[in-house]
Amino acid sequence: MIYEMRTYDLKPHSVPEVELRFAEAYEKRKKHSLLAAFWHTEIGPLNQIVHVWGYKDLAERARIREAAVKDGSWPPKIKEFLVNMRSDIMTPLAVSPELKPGTMGPYYEMRIYTLANGGELPKLVALWEKGIADRVKLSPLCAAWISEVGALNKFIHIWPYKSIEERNATRDRAKKEGVWPPSLLAKKHNMPAYSMTAQENKILMPSAFSPLQ
C-alpha cells in the first residue's frame, strides 16, 4: 500500500469554494477509487488543503488517474485558485495503521520531519517500534509514513485529537510518564537517536466530505 499526499497552496479566502468544487468533482471521481482523507489547515501555513489517496502501487495509481481524466471526472475545476501544488508518495511504517473512514478528530496534528542523510531511518523505526504501543494508549496514531517519491528523507506522522487542549495534555502526559517522544526513549533505553535537519507541524481539520473526520 502507498499513499499519495497532495498538498495545494491556495489564494487567500478561496478554501471554501475549492472544497465545494472538489466535493462536486469527487462524486464522479470516486467510482474509480476512494479518497482516504481531505483536510484544510487551521494552524500553520494558511490557505492550504491536503488530500490523501491510497493505492496498491504506482501502477494502480497511474491507471486510475488516467481513467478518471479520460472520462472527464477529474481534476476538479480549481485552477484559478491554485498557487502551488506538491505530490508525495508515502510508504507506511509497519506500525502505521491503515487509513479507514471514521471519526478520529476533528483536530489532526501533522508533524513533518526531514531526516539527515544516511542511516537515520533504521534508528527511527527502532525507536518507534520500541515505544508506540505505550504511546497509543494515551491517544491513537493516524499515520506514520516515509517519503518514497517526491520530497526526500521526509517522515510524516499524524495524530488525531478532539481538541487542542487534549493534544497539549496528551503530549505533556506522554513526557511525564516517559513513553514519548522517541528522543526521550533513546536516552531511557540507551538506543541511538535519529538526526533531523528540519521539523514542522500543522493542525488540520477535515472537510465535510472527507471519509476521515
Q: Could you characterize what this model shows?
A:
This protein starts with a strand and ends in a 7-residue tail after the last strand. The chain contains 5 helices and 8 strands. The longest helix has 16 residues, at 120-135. It is globular and about 55 Å long. With 213 residues, it is of the alpha+beta class. It has one domain (2-206): Alpha-Beta Plaits, CATH 3.30.70.100. The model has no long low-confidence stretch (mean pLDDT 97). Helices cover 31% and strands 34% of the residues.
Q: What distinguishing features does this structure have?
A:
single chain; 213 residues; alpha+beta; Alpha-Beta Plaits
Question: What's the helix and strand layout?
Answer:
Layout: E1 2-10, H1 15-29, E2 35-43, E3 48-55, H2 58-70, E4 82-92, E5 107-115, H3 120-135, E6 143-149, E7 154-161, H4 164-177, H5 182-188, E8 196-206
Antiparallel strand pairs: 1-3, 1-4, 2-3, 2-8, 4-6, 5-7, 5-8, 6-7
The CATH class name reads Alpha Beta
User: Mean of residue pLDDT?
Assistant: 97
How many β-strand stretches? 8
Number of separate structural domains: 1
**Helicity level, as a percent range?**
25-40%
